[in-house]
Each structure stands twice: as C-alpha cells, then as structure tokens.
Design a protein that fits this description.
By secondary structure, this protein is mostly helical. The protein has one domain (93-441): Rossmann fold (3-Layer(aba) Sandwich). It has helices at residues 2-11, 15-19, 24-52, 108-121, 166-170, 186-197, 212-218, 220-223, 237-241, 253-265, 275-286, 311-320, 322-342, 344-365, 404-414, 417-423, 429-441; strands at 98-101, 157-158, 178-183, 268-271. Strands 2-1-3-4 form a four-stranded parallel β-sheet, sandwiched between helices. The longest helix is centred in the N-terminal third of the chain and has 29 residues, at 24-52. It is globular. Bound molecules: 2-acetamido-2-deoxy-beta-D-glucopyranose (3 copies).
Length: 443
Amino acid sequence: MWLSQGEKRGIQTRPEVSEMPLPQKKRWESMAKGLVLGALFTSFLLLLYSYAVPPLHTGLASTRTPEGAAPCSPALSEPEALTPANGSAGGCQPRRDIVFMKTHKTASSTLLNILFRFGQKHGLKFAFPNGRNDFDYPAFFARSLVQDYRPGACFNIICNHMRFHYDEVRGLVPPNATFITVLRDPARLFESSFHYFGSVVPFTWKLSGRDKLAKFLQDPDRYYDPHGYNAHYLHNLLFFDLGYDSDLDPGSPQVQEHILEVERRFHLVLLQEYFDESLVLLKDLLCWELEDVLYFKLNARRASAVPRLSGELYRRATAWNVLDARLYRHFNASFWRKVEAFGRERMAREVAALRRANERMRRICIDGGHAVDAAAIQDSAMQPWQPLGTKSILGYNLKKSIGRRHAQLCRRMLTPEIQYLMDLGVNLWVTKLWKLIRDFLQW
Ligand SMILES: *[C@@H]1O[C@H](CO)[C@@H](O)[C@H](O)[C@H]1NC(C)=O
Ligand SMILES: *[C@@H]1O[C@H](CO)[C@@H](O)[C@H](O)[C@H]1NC(C)=O
Ligand SMILES: *[C@@H]1O[C@H](CO)[C@@H](O)[C@H](O)[C@H]1NC(C)=O
C-alpha cells in the first residue's frame, strides 16, 4: 500500500511545486527525474520482494490444501494468562480474541492503538503482516501472509489493513473470537479517501482545476474506470474492504445479502461519527476496563486540510457510493438499537466518563494539550506517517515530565501506528526502506 502510493505519486510533480511559476524547463526536469526514480525504485522493490516472500505464498489462498485449511486449535494455545476480571460489569471474563477488520479512513488508526495497547498489556499474540503494515492490500487476505504462520497456529488479535476474507481469517482465531469493524458516513469517507488517495488513482490525473472532487462528482461515470489502478479507493470503499464487489449493480439482491452477511459475521460494527458511544459498546461487549478504551485521536488531518462537503456534493457523493450508503444505513439503525438495549441513560453516563478520562489523560500526557503540525514534533518516534507530497497529518509532543504512573500509558497512547508496530516486533522492511527513500528525496 505505502509502496503503490509512492510509486504513483512519484510520477507526478509535487503539488506545491506545480502551483508556483517555475520555469517550464525546471518543471519538466523534475518530472522526468521523478519518473525515472519511480520506475527504478519500483523494479528494485519488485525484485527484492519476489526474493523475500516465501514460496508458500503462491496459490495457498486460492487452492487451499488440507493442511492450509487446518483451523486454529485453541488446545495448542497457551493457558489463560489473564486474571479474572474484577470490576467490569458483572464479573465477566475480558475477551482477548479479537478480529478487527480495519477499514480505510474511518478513525481505525485510533482503534488500532487501543488494540495494540490491550494486546501488549496482556502479552497476547498478534497476527501481523510480514514486511509491511498491511496484508498485501488490496489483494484478499490469506493466512499465509501472517508473519510466522504455521498450520494450526492460533492468534489472539488480527487488526492490520486487509481486504476481508472470512474463511481465511476465521481459521486463525479461536471459535469464540469477537469480530468488529468500523464504518463511516460514505460521503465523508469518499471525500477523505479522494484527498488521501486521489493522487495514486491514475484516472483522476486528467481532472484539472482546483476542485477535482466536485468535478469528479459532476459526472463520475465519465472519469471512473472500474479496472483502473487503485480504482477501489474511489467507489464503495467499505464494500471493497469487507471483501465484496464494490461495482455491484445496486439493484442486485446480492447487495442486501452481503449486508446481512456482515451482520452475521461481526459482533459489533462501530461508527466513526459516534466513536465514544461505539467504544462504550465495545468495552461492554469485550468486558474491558475504562482504561483500555482511552484514546487520543491519531492520524487526523489538519483542520484546514479538511474541506466540508456542501449539501449538493454530499448528496452526489452519497449517490455515487450507494452500496456503502445502504451498508451504513443498515448499521446506523442497528447501532442505535444496541444503544437502546444498553440503555440511553447509562450510555450518556459512560460516554461522559470516557470523555472525562480522556481529557484527564490529555492534560497528563500532551505537551501544549493539543495536536501539532509534523514540523513541530520533536521526537521522531512520535512522527506520524504522512501522505506523499503533503504534511497534513497531525501528531503530538509528549510532555517532558510525566509521573511514573502514567509515563508508559501516555507514550503508548501517543505512539503512531508504524512505530508501534516496530515496538511490537513487526518486520517492516518494505515500509522502512520506502521511508528512507522518501526522506532522501524529500517527498
Ligand atoms: C476482586 O475484588 C475484590 C473486592 O472488590 C477483592 O477482594 C479481590 O481480591 C479482587 N480479586 C482480584 C483477582 O483482583
Ligand atoms: C473462549 O474459548 C476459550 C477456549 O476455547 C476459553 O478458554 C475462553 O474462556 C473463551 N472466552 C470467552 C470469553 O468465552
Ligand atoms: C444515524 O441514525 C441516527 C438515529 O436514527 C440519525 O439521527 C442520524 O442522522 C443517522 N446518521 C446518518 C449519517 O445517517
């Protein structure tokens, strides 16, 4: 993923540069330079990658061997290391086997941090990808992509980006694992995805002018190419991430079948718009402590980099992503039924408690009390990953003096995804190499 973003982006001139009245010659020069470097780097990485990926890889996903199909057998996993829950509602057992289907542009990085922390605190076994921070997205998930995978191996938590493949995921976790995912209003998700990934979707390059998004939405069918490279980012991305055909005819009965399948498979579908309420439901479902679901907003864009969709554009974006819109409508309704069952009053109380606790942590952990631009982040371990060509993602500075009681929690809550993955021992050589090259070229 990081890789493909970069490859494509490298072929363009940098947006800031192209705005300036630069001499034409210089512009072409830098464009040519980018092109050559992009091409060289791509072939170099492809070569390396084909050596690094174990041969086991090929074909396992499609032609499943009996061995490959061996489900995770909980008997082989370590005995319960968790002490009985004490304090959470009704003395239930905290759940520690979790599949988080991480969707794109849905506050999922914040949730990832919560899962990393919980897993680390309890010494749980994560199913991590090998070499990069996603499971070969946008290809379908296959269990062979998991670092240190052995047939029959059991994992507690799976949470990195993937294109969902239920049977493959199912086999890696115990039968009573909890499946969760997060959705977001599809029009807003589309806007976010368009700005974050637009430049790596070649068919958007012919869109000229200032407001490419508006232009695209005027007549999506004219620009959209379902077979175009990275096209999935710009059409029903939720449907795609969940493993379905995102170009499905909206009139097809399959649409509703897929939605009901998501409902059967996932125990809780969180909503980005109601993130705190979602976390309260999650905490209740998993029988976790309040501390486990504390969070700071990670991977957020600078406010000035977030345009709001006007009424007309919002309608168009919703209509363009109609499969996602139906998915969202379904789960928005079921979400509020769950809140009803949980109790409105109780929900209000717990949300207030969560916000108070987050606010308290903010005062304890964060220097200046708020997120800052990348340039103002002092510790490179706190530097978030940036989309190519911009530095629009905000990060944090850890306070200099934090009491011993909170030092570790503060650091963990603020550590960005890539650094946290490294802390957890994930092999990220592709991502790291890519970062080196980017730093070198100052992309
Ligand atoms: C659970 O809580 C009770 C009192 O609320 C305490 O006496 C007991 O030691 C606790 N058990 C564990 C395992 O923490
Ligand atoms: C899930 O199953 C495992 C073993 O199969 C068991 O030890 C654990 O207590 C179960 N967890 C829950 C929350 O039911
Ligand atoms: C979700 O459902 C709630 C309650 O029915 C409603 O007020 C809200 O507008 C819905 N949100 C979206 C984005 O559709």
